[in-house]
Amino acid sequence: MTIAYLSGATMLLHSLPSLLAQAATLPQGVDYMRVLPEIVLSLFGMLVMLVDPLLDPDSSHEVLGTISLAGALAALAATFWMAQYPGIAFYNMVRVEAFSVYFHVLVIAIAAVAILSSFEYLKVQGIRAGEYYGLILFGTVGMCLMSSAIELVLIFIALEISSISTYILAGFRRREASSSESSLKYFLLGSFATAFFLYGVALMFGATGSTNVDVISVVLRSGNVTVLAYVATALIFVGLGFKVASAPFHVWTPDVYEGAPAPVVGFMSTGPKAAAFAVLLRIMFEANAPGRFWLIWVSAALSMTLGNVGALVQDNVKRLLAYSSIAHAGYLLVAFAAQPELGTSAAMFYAASYAAMNVGAFAIVSHFANFGEKYVALEDYAGLGRRSPALAAALTFFLMSLIGIPITGGFFAKFYVLSAALKSNLVGLAIILVLNSAVGAYYYLRIIVMMYMREPRGTVPVTRVPAATALAIAGCLLLTLYLGVMPGRVLDYTVRSARDLANDTAAHDMARTK
Amino acid sequence: MNMDTLSPFILSLVTFIPAGGGLLILLIPRRDRDIKLFALVISILAFIISLHLPVHLHREAGAFKYEIDKIWITSPNIHYHMGIDGISVWLVVLTTFLTPLCVLISWNSIHGRVKEFFILLLILESALIGVFTSLDLFLFYFFWEATLIPMALLIGMYGHGRKVYAAVKYFLFTMIGSMFMLAAILWLYAKTGSFDFVVIQNAIHNGSVPGIEGASLWLFLGFFIAFAVKVPLFPLHTWLPDAHVEAPTAGSVLLAGVLLKMGTYGLLRFDVGLFPDQARRNAWWIMILALIGIIYGALVSLVQPNLKKLIAYSSVSHLGFVVLGIFSFTAAGLNGAVFVMLAHGVATGGLFMLAGILYERRHTYDISEFGGLATPMPMYATFFLVTVLASVGLPLMNGFIGEFLVLTGAFQARPIYGILAATGVIWSACYLLWMYQRVFFGALKHEVNRTLPDLNDNERAALTPIAIVALVMGVAPMVWLSAIDPAVQSALAPFAQLASKMVGR
């Protein structure tokens, strides 16, 4: 791993002369506008850390939670401001465009919902709130940067910021062995995967002479593609495949999700994943990575099949949802095998609806888990439909969305991926997707069956849903419904940003040929 | 009221009134009586408004009536396109007719979670109507899937015995079947750029869909599997007896009365409507499966000790007639098929209600537990007899007209099919009348049965319309057929052209 880091440093040294040449002009004010959400998030993250020691640890949860929620909302506002200034910032490091704005909004919204659903959780589990909220905010900074960076080295740094935060967050139930196990496992395998990614970046630099996505794209499109570029693509895919939990790099997922605190699982199964998918979209499509088709094809088919088959036999709801997230990564990857424009918009839409339904589902799971996460077995959900009708109905709706039943976002997400695949003549992959969705229906249905068709077990306590959690769940519910009934506007936006992304590269090609 | 201004919205109104009412129930406090009353009012309101449809229907062949076509989603070109013709109009009315009766029959039989029950029932009604009114394939698929969850929950939450097994089996069978349909719909969209039924139909007819020659068989089969599961056609029928036996009475009534018709309606409208060539080419084995269904269903009914299972298998048999009629491609056959759909909906719906009434009193469906019931329950026995006779196909009852027409069509298509199907009529007389004899005649074998109360007011209110409609449909079938026939003729138009093409050769 050291070697990989060293090679990263070498790369920076190599590009130093050109950087220095550009640095003749210092970053302008508008450059800072283009990373405004990241700045806002970092400031609020620091604020949370600073305020934390001044407060009584027993009652600091609400204050700190409110501050970080305000931070997330401010960052959301900053994103809309940032969207007014499209363009490149910091010497070709960052680009603001429809694509990156979309993922900014998505990731920050996920963070906001995760913060909301943590209010109750932290209090019940007795977790110190300062570091927890700080890490969520800092991790979000990394994810935001991942979506707007067009420089592979910056992408790597952003990836590390987001990953390291989530490694720690996974271990926050300090007193539980399973949580420490989860954190350590995630850390070891995760850093291994990042090293792969960095190695791939290094080889890509070797193959194309640049770490800038646009330049790489121009070189790769010009026709002289070396073997090195193929190897680089494969290595980068390994690194990112781990982050999105796609097979065969998925084995960590169930253990980590089982041990990590439930709201964190909701966060890390959607936020870093969405950001990693954004990076994958950039590298695979915008940079036109060579030899990607079969890599993705095989990984998508494996993820869908292994995820669904694995989920069939799970008795722990968190593990079940972990396997389901592997399967969903597979569905999403199908879009990556399609034609760039179709695939990009389908993948973007999928990322948003998956985030809405999965964060919502985990918010309910974490409320229901209670102290020490005692109640996460499938059996514990028996009779929930009678004892807590609203919560059960909401969970049913999210599960319907995960199955892909109409009027939910999950349906349109799957639908767009499927139609992108069929338009690109990927009949084989489309059939695998269809069969897998049918298998998937079964295990989601098991939870619904448990909730509605089994007699309640008296020992499982059902507590009132606190306002913050209710707000989080309602937000996810509305978004899932909105995407399922009126997907038009979001879809138009994704189609437009996919076209932008394609045009960016086309413009570069033009510039080169001139 | 000016009918022209109303007509574009009437379909949306009929479709969404029940679901809207269901959502309103959410707001009503949990007082069971209020909820039941409200559900009854809503479902009767939907029925009355839906009567507007056949009354003002222009009964000529060709285009769809009461059409509404608005853009729903632009980027995949999805329209909110609804419209009905003489076939679907009666299925809509059948749905709205049966739902208030379901509310009545569930009045005293649902204990606990009453609110959820009626919400699910009303949402189910909306989805069912939507299936029959939508002309956009996407919209159709949306409603098709939307029927799935409420029905599965009704079976799983309010059923008895192995209800969870039955609910999951029902769900998975339908879900897997409809996945194939979705794939076929998406293929059509990828090639035509439209989900609109009329647009796609014209495109296929004009031969302007690239690659349709090679794909049409697979597309036909993709739709066919989804519909055949729902009908259910032998050998995909195994979910039906389980679902029926374990479902609550209202669930069974809607399942047999309307949900099965989704399959036959889909076959007629979409499978035959979009792929007439393939339908004709594959008709032979489909008709054989239908015949097997008719005879097999009847034979299994004959030996059923369980009253509800007997009625369930009789559905397999009756729905075989519908499929036989559709794939005979004769005017008589198709008219008959549509008429059997309606008649079966009324008669079998009634039978399930009657079985449910008995279950409430004795908590068993075992035929051997009964016998001599005509003495303690004379009114019940009368209603049962009327419904059984309607189902058997006694002349002047509704079952007769449909089956007669189907048999005529089957004879025209191929005499041996007609002969074999005709045995089905005889079988149905055997098993239904024998069952009636074992339940109602003879000596009272079990003491408990002596004190069984006869029908109460709710039950009478639910059964009277069934008996009246069964009789009226048998005496004056032209009221229904005059609307069905033009629609059937336009459905048959491509086959007439096909036939003349072949003759011309």
SSE blueprint and pairings:
The complex is a heterodimer of chains A (514) and B (505).
Chain A: H1 2-22, H2 29-33, H3 36-51, H4 60-82, E1 87-89, E2 94-96, H5 98-125, H6 129-148, H7 152-170, H8 177-208, H9 213-221, H10 227-243, H11 252-259, H12 262-268, H13 271-286, H14 292-312, H15 317-337, H16 340-369, H17 384-387, H18 389-403, H19 409-423, H20 427-453, H21 467-485, H22 488-513
Helix pairs in contact in A: 1-8, 3-4, 3-6, 4-5, 4-6, 5-6, 5-12, 5-13, 5-16, 5-21, 6-7, 6-13, 7-8, 8-10, 8-11, 9-22, 10-13, 11-15, 12-16, 13-16, 14-15, 14-20, 15-16, 15-19, 15-20, 16-18, 16-19, 16-21, 16-22, 18-20, 18-21, 19-21
Chain B: H1 3-27, H2 32-55, E1 65-73, E2 78-84, H3 86-105, H4 114-133, H5 137-146, H6 148-158, H7 163-192, H8 197-205, H9 212-230, H10 239-246, H11 249-274, H12 276-302, H13 307-326, H14 331-362, H15 378-392, H16 398-413, H17 415-440, H18 457-475, H19 478-504
Helix pairs in contact in B: 1-2, 1-4, 2-3, 2-4, 3-4, 3-11, 3-14, 3-18, 4-5, 4-6, 4-11, 5-7, 6-7, 7-9, 7-10, 9-11, 10-13, 11-12, 11-13, 11-14, 12-13, 12-17, 13-14, 13-16, 13-17, 14-15, 14-16, 14-18, 14-19, 15-17, 15-18, 16-17, 16-18
